[in-house]
């Protein structure tokens, strides 16, 4: 008996950047006015949760994707798929990219330096074409370039959280500058939608902090931002490594952690709520193992992981103070001896503010507590968190400049800008300037040309980016 095999369609390339767009973009080359030779589009945050954004992540997108060369094979593959999908395809245009430009994309991208803090409603990035026969390419790559919203939003949220923590440390700690980089630790890798999200989202956080358990962020940092080691971590227990000893041997699990990881100058974390947090602190850590913890010389970081976060941290800090003692710093705040607390469950802006407020009321320095943030750091954001938009704002049609914008009467907040846009400093404020011509050299611009005709023109290191915030 012969079994007939149904022919399978050929697999599609994972590296065909032509396909990284929205389907309807393929019909747009037929929709612009005849005589269109130039288009200009821009990216902005139209508002949202925070009044200032921290720009980051464009270098990764350009380096990872837009430095690839388009090949004839990519064009043929894209044509077959898109036409079968029901859309027209600009075949001659894409073959022009291959044959005239050697596969390099004839686009120019300008942007503010990564790490720059920019008030909302200002241009962050602009894109225009360098080949007058291919103006539609500016819109084709909106889909890909718009994804910069994600690292920008993560970096923005992380920066605002850093400022909250910074204020608390400067009020209550003698070691604010030393403590701040490690006060908000990234626990988000398992909570994101993809490895790439973990990498670029995790690195976005690391332009503000230096603590992370997202290894993928270190890979992206080294490969695309010249960072040898973008972040640091410490040995830490999880529930399985504690509960595998059995409830009756919980103290042995803790004793093993001290024996394995504690030495002068070391820091290690132990989740301590597998059974009873109060008992773990007051009896196991605070009595049975107290002297061993002190004698080993390292810093034990106790991690509550259940219950109401502000309440559990308050309980842990006060109980540890009673068992291990405190010193009083020059600002009059208590600092735990030998131990610290990290809260990694239920952390967001609201709980961070509550926990820091409780510490202040109880007279404890903010340096006693660190935060671990997972889904709320890397996943609980979207394009509308900062209301990102990528819009065309100017064109050259039959040799004449034309402003392009939308102005819906049903939502004035969606009115887009028109003009060839630039960001400048006026009277100490960043403002967007609109030119009514393409013939400008952008005097006094805060933006830079970072990409042209398939080549990266600027490559910032992570350290340079960190220094801008």
TrEMBL record:
Q: Name one GO molecular function term.
A: nicotinamide phosphoribosyltransferase activity
Specify the Nicotinamide phosphoribosyltransferase N-terminal domain's residue ranges: 16-109
**E.C. number, please?**
2.4.2.12
Which reactions does this protein catalyse? beta-nicotinamide D-ribonucleotide + diphosphate = 5-phospho-alpha-D-ribose 1-diphosphate + nicotinamide + H(+)
Any one GO BP annotation for this protein: NAD+ biosynthetic process
Q: Does Transferase count among this protein's keywords?
A: yes
Q: Which Pfam families match?
A: NAMPT_N, NAPRTase
Keywords recorded for this protein, A-Z: Glycosyltransferase, Pyridine nucleotide biosynthesis, Transferase
The UniProt record gives the binding positions of beta-nicotinamide D-ribonucleotide as 213, 303-305, 344-345, 375, 383
Whether Glycosyltransferase counts among this entry's keywords is yes
Q: What class of enzyme is it?
A: transferase
Q: By its UniProt entry, which SUPFAM superfamilies does this protein fall under?
A: Nicotinate/Quinolinate PRTase C-terminal domain-like
Give the CDD domains listed for this entry: PBEF_like
Q: List residues of the Nicotinate/nicotinamide phosphoribosyltransferase domain.
A: 182-454
Listed binding positions for diphosphate are 190, 239, 303
| Recorded metabolic or biological pathway in which this protein acts | Cofactor biosynthesis; NAD(+) biosynthesis; nicotinamide D-ribonucleotide from 5-phospho-alpha-D-ribose 1-diphosphate and nicotinamide: step 1/1
Q: Which domain of life is it from?
A: Bacteria
Q: Which family does it belong to?
A: Belongs to the NAPRTase family.
Task: List the protein's name.
Answer: Nicotinamide phosphoribosyltransferase
The record lists the lineage as: Bacteria, Thermotogati, Deinococcota, Deinococci, Deinococcales
